[in-house]
Amino acid sequence: MRAVTFQAPGEVLVADVPEPEISHPGDAIVRIDATGVCGSDLHIYHGRVQVEQGFTLGHEYVGTVVSIGDDVHGIAVGDRVLGCFQTACGRCYFCRRGLFHKCDSSRTFGHGATLGSLAGTQAELALVPSADLVLRKVPQGMSDEVALFAGDVMGTGYHAVLESGMRAGDTAAVLGLGPVGLCAVQVAKAAGAARVLAIDSVPERLAMAESFGALPVHLTEQDTRAAVRDATEGRGVDVCIDAVGHPDAFDLALRLTRKCGTVQAIGVYAERAQVHMGLLWIKSLHVCAGHANVLGHVDGVLAMMSAGLLDPSPLVTHHMSLEEAPDAYALYDRREALKIVLTP
Amino acid sequence: MRAVTFQAPGEVLVADVPEPEISHPGDAIVRIDATGVCGSDLHIYHGRVQVEQGFTLGHEYVGTVVSIGDDVHGIAVGDRVLGCFQTACGRCYFCRRGLFHKCDSSRTFGHGATLGSLAGTQAELALVPSADLVLRKVPQGMSDEVALFAGDVMGTGYHAVLESGMRAGDTAAVLGLGPVGLCAVQVAKAAGAARVLAIDSVPERLAMAESFGALPVHLTEQDTRAAVRDATEGRGVDVCIDAVGHPDAFDLALRLTRKCGTVQAIGVYAERAQVHMGLLWIKSLHVCAGHANVLGHVDGVLAMMSAGLLDPSPLVTHHMSLEEAPDAYALYDRREALKIVLTP
Amino acid sequence: MRAVTFQAPGEVLVADVPEPEISHPGDAIVRIDATGVCGSDLHIYHGRVQVEQGFTLGHEYVGTVVSIGDDVHGIAVGDRVLGCFQTACGRCYFCRRGLFHKCDSSRTFGHGATLGSLAGTQAELALVPSADLVLRKVPQGMSDEVALFAGDVMGTGYHAVLESGMRAGDTAAVLGLGPVGLCAVQVAKAAGAARVLAIDSVPERLAMAESFGALPVHLTEQDTRAAVRDATEGRGVDVCIDAVGHPDAFDLALRLTRKCGTVQAIGVYAERAQVHMGLLWIKSLHVCAGHANVLGHVDGVLAMMSAGLLDPSPLVTHHMSLEEAPDAYALYDRREALKIVLTP
Amino acid sequence: MRAVTFQAPGEVLVADVPEPEISHPGDAIVRIDATGVCGSDLHIYHGRVQVEQGFTLGHEYVGTVVSIGDDVHGIAVGDRVLGCFQTACGRCYFCRRGLFHKCDSSRTFGHGATLGSLAGTQAELALVPSADLVLRKVPQGMSDEVALFAGDVMGTGYHAVLESGMRAGDTAAVLGLGPVGLCAVQVAKAAGAARVLAIDSVPERLAMAESFGALPVHLTEQDTRAAVRDATEGRGVDVCIDAVGHPDAFDLALRLTRKCGTVQAIGVYAERAQVHMGLLWIKSLHVCAGHANVLGHVDGVLAMMSAGLLDPSPLVTHHMSLEEAPDAYALYDRREALKIVLTP
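Structure tokens for the assembled complex are given below, as produced in the milestone run.
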């Protein structure tokens, strides 16, 4: 079958690879109908995250079940499904507490040996372990391009908001309006935020956030702290979502958040950084961090997307064929796209 | 000054009563601009809740501060304010835990000696004790008729949803589409419920709930349990709000709610009733009950109303003058109104 | 192999039954070292819960793994294990939320066709499905008779306290000092209750609760409400655990609990009952109900028992051989025992 | 009256100062029976926290009410009381949410103009504003030296544990065994921690923690990470309390805590620091920070101390007279004392 494979930093190749086979009773095989290119794929493309040469990429996907193992109960051959970007065992210490994202034997699609050697979904077929936990039927009437957000980007926006403890009536700020930040804006609004301040420096992204109901604030051309003070009687926001993953964003988040508020660091951090611990301490802030528990939240995300409360379709800027993947990666790398959907 | 006073079951009279005076440094006096007639007033009108003859009624109000005690800090003379239906001391065991509705020395406006001998707000002036806790400035641009919902009916809808633990993406049912039920529908939708089933037997109320985004279900002409099953893959709703206060409603709530879900009994119960404890137990349900903590939630309600996420104005069916109060009570008693706003 | 089988109300028989076999890759077979006789067994013995003639009884057990399926990871042949009284699939809607006790395909040991046709553990061998979720290794140094409480009675006491939201420093009351009530007393004390009032009418049980650190209150010879008032500055307890399962107990729980407190109905309810809904409502109480989520709590229970913070051994009043099961049931039926441990 | 006053870094003087007077109806005046010297006093003594020359120090106190304003309800003249180290208004945005430690107009005893110009309690008399919120009656039978811990050091230990979300059965680590760390050890044990690892480098403090039920781990002579692994099946602790307030402690806390666990930074941070954000992120940790909400927790602390579940008396190493304050400060500065109690 055809699949998008990593070759070297800056180089992906659509190549013939062996078809996957069921090897465990909990497995399913899905024929991919649509698969996304994501910011995480860029980390691999840039060589910052290392995968083996020839490894199949991709972890956002919608498709049709073509084969299942003996111990899969929730879905059947022929079901139209979407999947989560990682797997979980359902039985370890963390899974038993619903912390599927920290499963002791989790595997991530398309991320090479480091994350479990699980071939990616930018391919004609994908093997899905723990199919009962990882896959969900696509609700009636939902398009492929909407559905594939549930298992990754919208799931991440949902996690960011729900795990922050934000309540209806609160004011939130979202720093960084890439796909995750924009999804977080949608979720915060849909979950009842009275106001969402959306902060970035790209006018198109600010405009999209505004169209989702947020108050756009330009990072450098406006005074972000003044904007937050004006919106909160001087207190600061109840919840600040850092969808950037850079020390400057985290520092700004500490400043924009009210006493006893929450900073949700959903943007990726991988290194040491200077943090104003004094500010964190004197304001009695809460910090949560880490990637999303997409398996734990996918039902809620699907329910809201199905009801039309969340709609990621404006984020889809490009549709391309799987064979055009090298162009898609290059285009995404030039930051000319928010979300590219590939069709095998 | 003129005030609506209780005379006997079925009889209210607009009479001259003495003007209130500041007697404690935490007091404020508010000149009433608008005041509502509420379902609780009907309990008094019917004689089910007893108040003294001549007692001033009313507990929903918007107005202007005309005088304050020495120890009021949050508001000033001239401020346009709305108030909560009850007071709280801010210092007792319950207030210290934010449970203002269970304050050991709480007083309720317009409910006679039983609830603290605090004259009602269907009058030209009202004395407001603990003004810092009870009053809030009306946000810029909010009409009187919207603002007066914050301190009672919408506050109750908000409490019902928020205290139930409902999360964005959940499915809720609301039993009983009086003003509180309709407000609960609005709050549930605004807080991210994927679906809200609104159950009643009055077509106009069902239509209004539908206009708020709910799925209307006729109590007797439709199969409520089937409707819930269809909406929840057979599981039952995550949260069921009983805004009726009748054993039949509570019983239906137990049946409509999924295992480990929550039944929120916001409707008034005053007596013993048959309860299917076996059903409650085998489904591991949670039950919460009691009237709303309006003081604890008024900031969130105001923020959402101010942002346009909640809008009680469709519930206002009648505007009348204070002098017309006897007609207003009679009309409300005939169930021809959802909310009547009186203007002194 | 030998097993305790149900024959008719009032009659159990130790008989030869076929040995179990692994039929699913998640199964394990455990050679039973000790198994308890529990209050739930009495429901069957009395015919109130119906099981098939010849069905093997029992659901409390400690033993040694003698065989495992291909998909069991957490344990190995030769491990000394204890188990929970029910199974869970780990993948359904409820399991994914950690609500293992409400698993859509849960099976309970020794309860006949109604609860999943899973042979009981009062036998030489037991088949344990979903072994990864159901079994745990017995911590070093823990006796059989202590360990077998983790998967049922102590797990129930732990659930009752932890799921009630009780906090360190709170005051709790426990109604009914059978094995579950006594375990709840231990857990409440170990979890930091400043005071635990233990209420029953059996002097020996009151004395045991007192030895666990509770304040004993005789149900009929003392004034329970006065005792609670004295212990709580007149407020009522923060949490009241009804370990009885009778309308009178529930009614007393409503009266003993403070405003906004929690009534935890862990005792079994199967029918309709008169409930003082007015009291529930005016006090704004929370009610939780249902049997324990033992799978979800077994790690915490084991950690506390292993540290010596919980010690059910005083509850073990009798050790008997499996062959003496008919005598054991008769003795338990005469209420002469708190916990009988059978050894095959 | 006599009072301990700040003169210059390293110099305190017991001097005659004017007696306090009631100036607000919520005030009380307390005749001090015992007052502590605390680590926070040392910050002033060292000049790191600046107060005016001649300002009265101290914020831990037990005494007798000698005078009250017209609007104090919870206590009366003659009551033996203890107090919290800071005041709160009970009415602002933060107080209404129970976040008394972040009250917009909070004042701290003995900390000069920066924290509200409220004279300290190392004196014969102290003025206590918001007396209803700040003071509590000393429970029958509780000694002065125990009671004065409730409003500061033990309240801080209690906050650290309770606000971390630690549950009975969890494993906790406490870094830094000064008075706050040792109190946190006691609270964690009393709240049901299965294991508490107590980490420091001072043998006497490790021995005291061990006497409170903790597993002592020497910071430099033992391998702290190995000790945590051994105690947690390799996972890390559920909750790690940093009672040090130094970047090295915070870094160690990030390493010792399990995935999705909580780091509670109760130790004081005032500046920027290097933080391993990558570790925080990849482990999906929660961080809480800031000083304790002592007003919000004092009831729970008193209940547990009164029941004997918490006993700070072993921490009292010295009793001295108020006149000996200069010696007391010098001795505390030489780290020869854990807690010094001064008697006027």
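Chain B has twelve helices and 16 strands. Chain B has two domains: 2-138+312-343, 155-289. Further analysis is deferred to the final report.
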